[in-house]
Structures are given as C-alpha cells and as structure tokens.
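Deliverable D5.2: sample structural annotation.
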Amino acid sequence: MTSEELQALIAAHLPCEHLEVSGDGRHWYATIVSSAFEGQRLIQRHQRVYATLGGRMQTDEVHALSMKTFTPAEWAASNA
C-alpha cells in the first residue's frame, strides 16, 4: 500500500478537512482533521480511523498507524 492509497482509503470513509499520511509501506503516520471528531475522546477518534481501514490491520496490510487527530477548531488553535 502507498501513502496515497492509505490517504484515499481514510478520506473515502471519513470527512477530512486536512489529511496527511506518510510512512514506509508498513509503518504509517497520519495527521487527520475532521469535524466527525467533535465531542469524541482520543480513543474514539482512533477507533473511528481504524474502522476506515476495515480488515487491513488484521491482515497486516497496514502494520502500524500512528496518528494525530484534531477537530477543525483544535487544528486552527494548534496552528495559530
């Protein structure tokens, strides 16, 4: 899987205002900004992103995904 494929997979299932994905083909790093994260705790946000991957984590197609998740307001505040 490429970073573009992983990014497209996440974006297809989660409305993203900002999405960056990088990695080496097995270990991935993502910054995800979505209004869908409003009112959710960190674990709920991560579970929501993992759900977009379906079984790809279990089949080792995506071995590891480290992510930073933000609401649009949190993202704006962090970049102010």
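Annotation notes: The mean pLDDT is 92. The chain has one domain: 3-74.
The annotation will be released with the project's public dataset once the embargo ends.
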